[in-house]
Every structure is written in structure tokens, then in C-alpha cells.
Amino acid sequence: MTCTEFLAHLDELIDNDTLTAETRAELEQHLHKCGHCEVVYDTTRKTIEIYRSHELYDLPDALRDRLHAAIMSRCKSRCKNGC
Amino acid sequence: MPIIQPIASEGEQHPDVALVERVRGGDVSAYDTLVRKYERQIFRIALHITQNREDAEDVMQDAFLKAYQKLDQFQGNSKFYTWLVRIAVNESLMRLRKRRTGKMVSIDEDMETEEGSVPRDLADWAPNPEQNYNQSELAEILRKTVQGLPPGFRVVFALRDVEGLSTEETAETLGLSIPAVKSRLLRARLQLRERLSRYFHKKTGPADMALGEMRADK
Fold first, then answer.
1. Single pTM value for the model
2. ipTM, two decimals
């Protein structure tokens, strides 16, 4: 297996998607002997993990309450005009 | 940590269906429940795409209002949440377009870029590299890095990896084919990895920092 072929399956390996046992074994074998692909695999997984575990765009409670109230008030006024 | 909605198994009715039915019957309080359930996710998605807090606030309000007005058009063959996300994504892209006056913004933009399709930075990262930065420095690095992605990659990454939608749901939400979602996701992930590598390298000598390009014939 070449590095290009490995990359084509990178997402499936990361997402634990439907891979045949044979393909999985080939990918793991390639990982075992290719330091570059091992780095790409590990650091790509880490990239996803970091983005999943850090809340970048939190909605503060006060802002949430204000926006929520605005949404519901607009919906209700729309309702009065015939919903 | 984003809440990933459990997917109802076949034959089992998703709890949103009953809420949608109540709203259609004139019960506004059921819509209040739906808004509360999804407002954080919609705000996050809007901010991921627009990269502007003011726009994200507007998108969030407009998306929920539009969904409310169009509820009769909701078929029920998709989940309410993915239908709502679709509205929010369209509103977000519209806002982005307005900000970048005259410049087209669509999820098909910048797809030609080859950046990140072949990994170039092959130096390993430090163990737990995020610990080398404080919370606000790290948040700034992550924001700046995701901001650099073309919108068409950013939206796929946000829906699939941050919000936890499946590939199929992401494809349905964005009106893309499954192979298109997969290809964008791979390139988004590789571009982010490449850019984060600048910050997360092991602190070693310069010789280790540039190991050269990956060989296709290896």
C-alpha cells in the first residue's frame, strides 16, 4: 500500500467506518512501517479531538436568554397576524 | 462539548415530531421547547460559517423565525434538526455574502484549492500539545485556524466533526453528494492539521521540523 492509498482511507480509519477486515489489516500494516503516515494519522485524530473538546463558540446565558426572548416574541407576533 | 442528538431507530418516532405537530396545531410553547433545545447548536454553526458574532446572532433569530413560518413545508422525512440546520446554513452563507460585497460565497467556493490535500508537515506533535498554551491562547489558535478554511470546507467540518452529524445528514443538509462531503471533510481535516502543526510541534531541532514531503511511491 502506498501513502496515497493510505490517505484515501484515512477518514474511514479515523471514523471507524465500514472497512473490510482485509483493508483494515493493510492500513494497519502500512501504519506500522510508515512513520510519516503514522504522524498524519495521529495528528489528524488529535486535530478533531481538540476541536470537539474545546467550546470555541459558546453562547453566554445572558445573550442566549435575550435572543431566545426575541425569537419567541417575533414568532408570537407572526402568530397574531394569522398562524 | 456539543450535544450529539441520538438518532431514533427505525419505527421509533423522534420526540421532535410530536413537538412539531403541536406547533402546527397552534401551540407556540412547543416551539419554545424546540428553540431552547437547538439554539446553542444553531448559534455555533452560524458563527462557524460567518465568523462574526453579530451575524451569528441575526442568523440564529432569522433561522428560527423562518423555520416557524415554513413549518408547513417541513415534510417529516428528514429530522427537524437537520431541516433547521439547512435553513441556518443558507442564512449564514447569505450573511457572509453580504459582508464580502460583490464576492460570491457558496459552499462550492474555493474547491479547486489543493492546499492540504497532500500532507507536507510530517513532524510529530508534542504529547498533549494544547497544554503548552493557556485557554484563551488555545481558543485563539483554534479560531484563527478554522477561520482560514474556505467556507465550503469549514461548514462540512463544523457539521460533521464539531456538531456530530453523520455523513448522510451532512450531505442532506448541504444538498451535496456523500462523496462530495467525504472529500471536503478529508481536506478540511488535513488543512487544519497542517496549520495546527505550526503550533503543536515537538520542541526539537530544526532538522526534525522539515522531514520533507510524503512520497507517493513509498
1. 0.83
2. 0.89
